[in-house]
Every structure is written in C-alpha cells, then in structure tokens.
Amino acid sequence: MDDVTRLGNSRRFWTDAEPSVPPPVRRRPVPDLTDFGTFAVRVGQRRSAWYSPALLAGLALFCAGYSMVSGSGLLPLSQPTRRVVLLAIAGVLLVAAVVVLMRNLRLGDAHLRRDHRIFVEHGIVTEAYRTWLNVSSSESPQLAWVLIDARLPDRQAARLHAAFDGWLTAVGADSDMKTRTSGWFRAGSGLVPSEELFGPAATGGFLAGPSAYGHWKVVMPKPGTEPAPLDAGGSWTYRSVRDDEPAAPVPTIGPAE
Prior knowledge:
It contains eight helices and six strands; from the N terminus they run αααααββααβαβββ. It is α+β, with helices and mostly antiparallel strands and about 260 residues long. The mean pLDDT is about 80.
C-alpha cells in the first residue's frame, strides 16, 4: 500500500478543494526578514553563549574563596603556598571563561549570518496553522503544524487550506488512519511538502512537526547541506518566527481534537 492510499487517498482532497474557495480571512502582511538585524531578533536560534563561561567563572570564584579558608587539608601545602596555588587556578579559570565567552559570541554571530544568508537565498516565509494531529510517540502530545507559503496567490493558498482541512478532518474521523498518519510522519524528515500528500499541482504547503507557538514559520535548507528542493530529496528545516503581536491567537486548521 503506497503512502497516498495509506493516508486515506489524500490526493482526492486536492481535487475536492475547488480553486474558487475564498482565501482564509487571516492573510496578513508578511514579515520582512531580509534585514539581518530583524532576522536575528525574530528567527535567530538563541544558543546561550554564557553556560560554559558562567561555570568556569563560578569555579574561579570558588577557588578564590577557598584560598582564604585556613587549616584545610585539601592541598598538603603551607598556607601561603596553598593560597598562591588556588589564586593562580582561579586566575586561569577566569581567563578561560573570558576566552570561551568571546569564542561563543563570535561563533554564534557567524552561524547566525550563515543562516540569514541561506534564508535570503532559498528560504520561505510561511503562514502557520495549528492542528490537532498528534505526532508524538510518547504520552506527551506533540502537535503538527500546517505551513502555507505566504507568497502564494490567494486562490492557491485557499485551495491548499481547504485540502489540508478536508484531509485532516478525514484523518481525525478514523482512529486507524490517525495512527497510520502519525507513524508515517514520524518515520519521515519532520517536514512534508504538500505535493507529497496532494499531488504535483499542490505546491506551496507543508506539514511540519511540533514547533513553538507563532503565526509565522521560516522554511529553509538545513545549514551545511546542499540546497536541493525538498521534494527532490533536499534536507530542509523550519523555524518559528517570533511574533510582533503575541496577543493574537494562532488559527487552527482541521477539526478540534
């Protein structure tokens, strides 16, 4: 049984989704992420540069403080010599903390600029929709997202929206199909192009795995990989875009759980 059949003959939902269906009301101005500063603030992954330096600095403070404690047998040295040794160790640790921090900051900026360059050259800003589809293999639910290319014409976006909505509704009504769909998704890359579900005409959509709450996601080639199209075997990923209007609820697609 092929994937299309196993997933409830998913291509029929593209056929059933008439192109004349009105677009979703929520279409809104697309965030401009071409500026590096904006990309860094709204998309950049926050890798902490402080963990290792903070640990090293903490050890330095411990050594400096311990050097003032008299009568300890931890180091079989005279009190003056022991104090000098511990203060020297503290100094080395403190210098190491500064060096590691500077290195982390430099590498973090380089990685962020690399990611921004990949996004500008190949990335896609997508409108994000929450779904009820649980793709977790554990008891803790992890819900999938539907992503629709924000650059699409309204009619194509509306048809994709209707196709995903119809398919997710059918999957939700059949417990066996729901289980098959969840297992099929987990066995993949975590990002499925809509063409794989609905056929070659259904371009511009994605079924994505769990993600942070937000109205927008960025879809882009994984750093360090060849930027081949996703449907041609390329390795792509998605990232959340931090909202500038966090109070607005993110819309859902498909039925409620």
